[in-house]
Amino acid sequence: MVSRLQLSRVPIIVCEGPSEENYLTELNKLLVRNSYSVFCKPVSVGTGDFSPVIKKFKNSRQQNRKSEILIWIDRDIYVRNSNKCFDSYSRKAANIPDFLFSEMNFEDFLSLHYSDSEVIAFERILEKKNHFRYPLTEDSYLPCFKSNLCPEYQKGDLPFVLDKNRLDTMFNNLGKYKMNCGFAYWLKEQLNSGAVTFR
């Protein structure tokens, strides 16, 4: 029997907003049914802008001296250098961890949970719109995501039941497409370590 994670060691994920927070909540529910009592603690910032993210990180660090703290943010505003986010990130202090970026946004990360044929078609559309050089803004990419992958999707909601099959699909799609996610690689490493087994 796999031992349960001690609460003092639960990683804290400082994340951009309700979309990531909801995903992490569903991930916790999935893993509660398997090996862990709690897998991670999401802490939502409400924005991906550098300064509020770092403020939330520092507050979390003050309250949790021993916990691993990760930062999961969309890369789009950093590529666009909105509010000088990229400039600030490039000068971040050494005690601030490298961000686990979603390329380019959370919906791109969600797309990796779909079949190869669906992801390929979606990626082609995004490439035609030059999304991976000049990331689309929400008013452009949300209609694209809805029309190609999930018509009922609402920002902040998870458009599918997160289960082992969805996770496996996402892990299998990592590195195959321009949609990528640092958090997904970290998660895969945690699950591959043998600390979590699915019943």
List the helices and strands and how they pair.
Blueprint: E1 12-15, H1 18-32, E2 41-44, H2 50-63, E3 69-74, H3 76-79, H4 85-90, E4 100-103, H5 106-111, H6 116-128, H7 138-148, H8 164-173, E5 180-181, H9 182-192
Quick synopsis:
The chain is about 45% helix and about 10% strand. It is α/β, with parallel strands linked by helices and about 200 residues long.
Structure commentary:
- The chain is of the alpha/beta class and 199 residues long.
- The chain has helices at residues 18-32, 50-63, 76-79, 85-90, 106-111, 116-128, 138-148, 164-173, 182-192, and strands spanning 12-15, 41-44, 69-74, 100-103, 180-181.
- α6 (116-128) runs antiparallel to α7 (138-148).
- The longest helix has 15 residues, at 18-32.
- It is globular and about 45 Å long.
Order of helices and strands: EHEHEHHEHHHHEH
**Lateral strand order in the biggest sheet:** 2-1-3-4-5
- Oligomeric state: single chain
Which term fits the overall shape?
A: globular
